[in-house]
Amino acid sequence: MEKKIIVLGVGLVGSAIAKDLNIDYHVTAVDINKLALKNLNQNFGIPTIEFDLSKTKEIANLVANYDLVICAVPGFMGFKTLKAIIEAGKNTVDISFFSENPFELDSLAKKHQVTAVVDAGIAPGLGNVILGYHNKQMKVESFRCLVGGLPQKREWPYEYKAVFSPIDVIEEYVRPARYVQNGQLIVREALSDAELIHFDEVGTLEAWNSDGLRTLAVTMNIPNMIEKTLRYPGTIQYLKVLRETGFFSNQDIQINGNLVKPIDLTAKLLFEKWKLKDGEGDFTIMQIDIIGTENEQKIHYIYNLYDIYDAESKTISMARTTGYTCTAIANLLLTNQFDRKGICAPEYIGEQADNMNFIINYLKNRNVNLKLIYKV
Question: How far is the C-alpha of 38 from the C-alpha of 95, rounded, in Å?
């Protein structure tokens, strides 16, 4: 019998996930957005359910008849949604990238015998899989991940377009960045330690500390690990001005007798400014450096990923790289190639070489190419 999957949240990334999984499985898409649902139903024949996913008490009934749940809701809804899915006893793959600690749900997931893979995107996600693989093959001393998703066309004033929820993007600019240096967990403010780095594909980009290690800071005993976000040069200065002025604050302020969260207003204002125009392209770029000792020899691996908007399918690159990593992992669960119970970070999946190879080949078959460009 064909397995049934329900996708909770079908924005830019969630819709790409639904379409990809619908090739081999029976998929149902759920969202409150009528237009997103109409597109999937009319153009791809995917059954849809219009539903307010903030009603977490009703999620158990919603997912009851499905073999796997994909959680692709905005980050601020992610933790509660994931908890509801686990309580319903359903295996799940999550790309909501919520700020809470996912391992708080580990005991609950094990109690319900649920496999819940979190952070199943590109970074976190694919980068974790790669590190998980190499950490089993060698003694890793250093891990660095540089990653960014940007519009192909630079336009004043932002030179940026949001390829996922604007509030989730803003979270990257305010959430303290954690990294590991000489075995110690270091916490710095976001946007700190800026550096300019050249990439052959796109030229010079600006890199700064962001909180992208996430589960790696807990699961990996590696003395040096860091993740940095990539943007066009000059981005940090205007973001710091907005942040220091209070535009990213969650604290209510009173305006004409009404309480308003500045971050909600900012997200509302930036949503149209940051929206990709129809047919406008984006790219995703990631570079991973892993240094350590393998077979008693010093070794340095460098992986590169550069992906662009698919004009034929009209699928943005961030949806491709994040979404297809998620669907690759979903396939591992659906075929019982990965069945560890509890909260599962992507690095757990990478520990098995077959899983790592499966994911890389799955992406390659969709023209998302991860290349090992240097090994010495």
Answer: 23
Write down how long the chain is: 376
Average pLDDT for consecutive 10-residue bins of the chain (376 residues)? 93 96 97 96 97 96 98 95 98 95 98 98 97 97 97 88 77 91 95 95 95 94 97 92 93 92 89 82 96 95 96 92 98 97 98 97 97 81
Compute the distance between CA of residue 265 and CA of residue 206 in angstroms, rounded to an integer: 27
Element at 226 (helix H, strand E):
strand 224-231
What superfamily would CATH give domain 4-122+317-375? Answer: NAD(P)-binding Rossmann-like Domain (3.40.50.720)
Per-residue model confidence (pLDDT) at position 358: 98
Let me know the angle formed at the C-alpha of 178 by 175 and 184, rounded to the nearest 5 degrees: 155
Task: Give the tokens for residue 304.
Answer: 């590169």
Burial profile 114-148: b = 16 or more Cβ within 10 angstroms, e = fewer: bbbbbbbbbbbbbbbbbbbbbbebbebebbbbbbb
Question: What was the pLDDT predicted at 1?
Answer: 62
DSSP code per residue over 159-203: ----SS-HHHHHHHHHSPEEEEETTEEEEE-TT-S-EEEEETTTE
Q: Structure pTM?
A: 0.94
CATH architecture under which domain 126-308 falls? 2-Layer Sandwich (3.30)
Residues of the chain with CATH 3.30.360.10: 126-308
- Do the bridges between strand 370-375 and strand 297-308 make them parallel or antiparallel, or are there none, so unpaired? antiparallel
Q: What is the 3-state secondary structure (H, E, C) of 61-128?
A: HHHCCCCEEEECCCHHHHHHHHHHHHHCCCCEEECCCCCCCHHHHHHHHHHCCCEEECCCEECCEHHH
Q: Number of C-alpha atoms within 13 angstroms, CB side, residue 134? A: 25
Q: Burial code of 54-65, b = ≥16 C-beta within 10 A, e = fewer?
A: eebeebeebbee
Beta-carbon contacts of residue 148 (< 8 Å; ≥ 6 apart):
205, 229, 230, 231, 284, 285, 286
Considering the chain, tell me which residue range(s) the CATH 3.40.50.720 domain(s) occupy. Answer: 4-122+317-375
Four-point Cα dihedral 334, 340, 344, 349, nearest 10: -70
Query: Which pLDDT belongs to residue 346?
Result: 98
